[in-house]
Amino acid sequence: MGQKMELACIIDDDKIYVNLVRKIIEIKKLSENLLIFKNGLEALDYFKIILTNMTEEKLPDIIFLDLNMPVMDGWEFLGEFIKIKNQFDKKITLYVVSSSIDPRDLERAKSFNLVTDYLIKPIELKKFEKIFDRVASVA
Amino acid sequence: MLNDLQLNNILEDFDIAYWKINLLTKEISWSDHFEALVGTPPTDESLFEHFMNNVLHKDYRYDYRVAFENLTLGSEDLNQEIRLKLKNDKFRWFECRNLKRKDSNNIETAVLLFVNIHQSKRDQYTIEENFFYYRETAEMTTTGGWYIDITTKSIYWDDVTKKILDCPKDFNPDYDKRLQFYAPEHQEQANSIFEKCEKYGIPFKTELKMVTLYGREFWVQATGKPVYNEEQQIIGIRGVLQNIDENKSNELNLQNSLDIIAAQNSRLFNFAHVVSHNLRSHSSNLSLVVQLLNEAKNTQDKIDLIENVEDISENLDVAISRLNDMVSHQNLLKKERTLVSFKQSLDIVISSVSSLINRESAKIIAEFKALKEISYIPEYLESILLNLITNAIRYKQPGRVPVIFIQTYSVNDQNFIEISDNGIGIDLDQYGDKMFGMYKTFHSNPDAKGIGLFITKNQVETMGGSISVTSTVNIGTTFKIKF
To answer: Does the keyword Lyase apply (chain A) (predicted)?
Structure first.
């Protein structure tokens, strides 16, 4: 407890949701910084730039990935992210966060090794804290 | 000369009984075998009357009496097929005829033979009956027979086969042109199965598309088996072909309906999923706000959060009205098809989006000459045109004046419309299967709502058609609708 995460990342196109999560992180002081992407492609581009070592940008400790997004949805992002994740020099914890309660989505998300868990929106504040705590203490 | 006993024994071996008739006294005597067949006659009645009343089947009594009289008068030979009641009360067929005498001078006695022909008569009936059943079955199931004589390279068809193929009864099929009766796409298959049967004796049973003399295509089930001569060489192929067009087209229709139902079912599932997802995303935001409100330490924080509630309620409202839109599109189904003019529909669409068209100075070229109108739900056609035209303008190539080319045509009684644009195009390898999904937007365009193509596909399929797309990035996109 008490350890604070350095960088968290949210990939989600719902502005209201993103603002609320940002508030939670600020109020609960869960992470120093927050990366926000409004679709999978923007996030993927960011990670690819890091791999070129041409930037000072950092890798997040944790990613909250939405599924339904325009341009590149969560599934496509997962497909692309798998290809490059081995080139990262640190472990990134990834949670899929969706308001879909479709069991097929849950099943599919769990089939990815790199998905730690499938979280159904809304996430309770306490659950948020727990997740951040766990990841920060491991890091 | 054989005596009666010897003659009787010989004839009995052949199951032949006889009468001897004294032509002068008209006296009749039965052979032992005849008596053995029909039973011992009573003594108080003349043999002939007993025979007429108790042995001969009543249907033959009149004719037989006349013929018998003619015989005893010596004027005519007797030769009839008759039925006799035997000892066991069963009727059997006999051929009855007199033995002809060489020396016509000495005719004191006539011999009347009774030959049991029951088996051959029954065989004849069976054959007639079988032939009747065969013909009825062939007619009812429209099954025709055919034979190919390999040695003479000639083809024989029965009447039903000729009827199936719309050929007159005196039509003689030409061996060299035999493949013309198969649909072009099935000629190779037909050729190969006949060849296999001819060369290796492999029988076949297959479904093929044939063509009648007048070019009408239809489905048949055909069977064929090799015919061998005594040296076990294949000399011909024979078989039957059955017109199964009705069954086949029913089968295809059924499969088609099944596909449509399956597709609609999956869309319904998708729809339920989308409804749940969309409503949940707002309610979950609301729940987050409530949690944050509980945590909020001062009034300013609370006021900030209340602003979120306003946004959420606004978004929820939009989501619900979009879902309503979709449901109301589905409701149009209850409307009926009428003859719709493509030009009129297009004019309505163009006037409804004239501001967009003018702003982008889009050019719309329409060619409806080949197919001017179609039986359709007018609202659907307008909605389809509207969606595809606004899409084409919205995703124009920057700096290029949007041009939309619309063309209708019909091929083999099948009607089509094609809507092509010169826009930015789309990478189908990447997005092809999702193109018509709900809430799929491929461009970071704020206008994109992701339900237009979903609705278009839905409408096209509800009317029993299909929609496909071809596209090249930076060149343009063509949507093709099969009505």
So the answer is: no
Are B382 and B474 in a shared domain? yes
User: Is B284 within 8 Å of A24 when comparing Cβ atoms?
Assistant: no
pLDDT value at residue B446: 47
A/B interface, count of CB pairs below 8 Å: 67
How many domains does chain B fold into? 4
- What is the residue type of A81? F
Non-local (6+) Cβ contacts of B371 within 8 A are B342, B408, B409, B410, B415, B416, B417
Say what the pLDDT of residue B417 is.
Answer: 92
Considering B243, B259, B289, which residue would you say is the last residue of a domain?
A: B243
The answer on B410 and B276 residing in a single domain is: no
Residues B461 and B364 in one domain: yes
**Cβ contacts of B51 within 8 Å, gap of 6 or more:** B38, B41
**Cross-chain CB nearest to A16 (options B285, B440, B441):** B285
Picking from B84, B79, B71, the residue whose alpha carbon sits closest to that of residue B26 is B71
Answer whether residue B130 is part of any domain. Answer: no
pLDDT in tens, B376-408: 888 888 888 888 888 888 888 888 888 999 999
Residues B160 and B177 in one domain: yes
Q: List pLDDT tens digits, range B53-111.
A: 999 999 999 999 999 988 888 778 889 999 999 999 999 999 999 887 665 556 678 88
The DSSP output letter for B51 is I
- How large is the ipTM? 0.77
Q: Which of B280, B285, B443 sits opposite A101 (nearest CB)?
A: B280
Quick one: closest CA in B to A97, which residue? B281
Q: How far is A64 from chain B (nearest CA, A)?
A: 15
Range of the domain at B201: 141-243
One domain, residues B478 and B363: yes
Q: What is the pLDDT of residues A93-116, one digit of tens each?
A: 999 999 888 888 888 899 998 899
CATH architecture of residue range(s) A5-128: 3-Layer(aba) Sandwich (3.40)
Domain with residue B202: its CATH number is 3.30.450.20
Task: Tell me the residue ranges of DSSP E strands in B151-233.
Answer: 154-157, 204-211, 217-228
B313 touching chain A per CB within 8 A: no
At A37, the amino acid letter reads: F
Confirm or reject contact between B266 and chain A (CB < 8 A): no
User: What parts of chain A have a pLDDT lower than 70?
Assistant: 1-3, 54, 56, 139
Whether residue A25 lies within 8 A of chain B, CB to CB, comes out as no
Element containing residue A39 per DSSP (H, E) = none
Residues 6+ away with beta carbon under 8 Å from B24: B108
